[in-house]
Amino acid sequence: MSNRSSVLIVEDDAEIAELISRYLENNGMAVTRIPSGETVDAKLAAGDFDILILDLNLPGEDGLSICRRVRAAHDIPIIIVTAQGEDVDKILGLEIGADDYVVKPFNSRELLARIRAVLRRTGPQSRVEAGPSNQIFQFLGWRINLLARDVVSPSGMKVAMTGAEFDLLHAFCENPNRVLTRDQLINMTHGPTAGPFERSIDVLISRLRQKLEKDPKNPAIIQTVRSEGYMLSAPVARI
C-alpha cells in the first residue's frame, strides 16, 4: 500500500460521493469520483488506482455489470456498495469478483476501515509483511507465493485470483486438515469489520473450487464438513 492510496469512487448520489470523498481525503487518501460507469474504463486505463468503490444502484449500466467488466480486465480490489437487505446483490457481486461489500446507510469510518483492510491484504505492504522467507506454500503440486501473491497450478500455469480468493486460500494453507468455521474464515480473511454475512464465505469457497478442483461439484481439495465448516484436505509444506 502506498503512502497515499488512490481511490476511484463510482457513485451517482453527489451528496454521498462528496461526503465519502471529503472523509477519505481527510484521512490521507487521493480520491477521484465519477457518477456512472461510462468513464470507468478510461479512468482505470489512465490512472494508477489502488482500489475501486462501486455503488451497485447506478443510472445506465448497473454496478454488477461494471464489476464483471472491470474484474475481467483488472486486478484492482473492488468494494461494492449495496442497499440494506439486498443479499442477492452482495452474493452476485462477490461471485463476479468483488473483494468486499459495505451496506447503505454506512458510517464513513466503516468504509475507511474496510478500504484499509482490503489494501493491507492486497497491496504491496502485504508482500513486505510476508517476509523474505517461508513465503511459499505447496500442496498437491500447487504453489502459493505469499510475497508475489500468485498461485501456480500443478501444470505450471499461473491462476488468476482476486484478493479475496487469495486470502481465503492463504487461510486454508495456514490451517491444513483442520475444520474452519465460516466465522473463523470471515475473521481470517476480512477481519472483525466484516459482519455476520456468512454467505459471502460460501460464495468465495465456490469461486476457489472452480479454480482448484478437477470437479468442483465433487471437491477433493476443499471439503465441506457438514454443520461445521470447510477444510483443506491435503498436506501442506511451507518453504
From TrEMBL:
<feature type="DNA-binding region" description="OmpR/PhoB-type">
    <location>
        <begin position="134"/>
        <end position="234"/>
    </location>
</feature>
<dbReference type="GO" id="GO:0003677">
    <property type="term" value="F:DNA binding"/>
</dbReference>
<feature type="domain" description="Response regulatory">
    <location>
        <begin position="6"/>
        <end position="119"/>
    </location>
</feature>
<keyword id="KW-0597">Phosphoprotein</keyword>
<keyword id="KW-0902">Two-component regulatory system</keyword>
<dbReference type="InterPro" id="IPR001867">
    <property type="entry name" value="OmpR/PhoB-type_DNA-bd"/>
</dbReference>
<dbReference type="InterPro" id="IPR016032">
    <property type="entry name" value="Sig_transdc_resp-reg_C-effctor"/>
</dbReference>
<feature type="domain" description="OmpR/PhoB-type">
    <location>
        <begin position="134"/>
        <end position="234"/>
    </location>
</feature>
<keyword id="KW-0238">DNA-binding</keyword>
<dbReference type="Pfam" id="PF00486">
    <property type="entry name" value="Trans_reg_C"/>
</dbReference>
<dbReference type="Pfam" id="PF00072">
    <property type="entry name" value="Response_reg"/>
</dbReference>
<protein>
    <submittedName>
        <fullName>DNA-binding response regulator</fullName>
    </submittedName>
</protein>
<feature type="modified residue" description="4-aspartylphosphate">
    <location>
        <position position="55"/>
    </location>
</feature>
<keyword id="KW-0805">Transcription regulation</keyword>
<dbReference type="InterPro" id="IPR001789">
    <property type="entry name" value="Sig_transdc_resp-reg_receiver"/>
</dbReference>
<dbReference type="InterPro" id="IPR036388">
    <property type="entry name" value="WH-like_DNA-bd_sf"/>
</dbReference>
<keyword id="KW-0804">Transcription</keyword>
<dbReference type="InterPro" id="IPR011006">
    <property type="entry name" value="CheY-like_superfamily"/>
</dbReference>
<dbReference type="InterPro" id="IPR039420">
    <property type="entry name" value="WalR-like"/>
</dbReference>
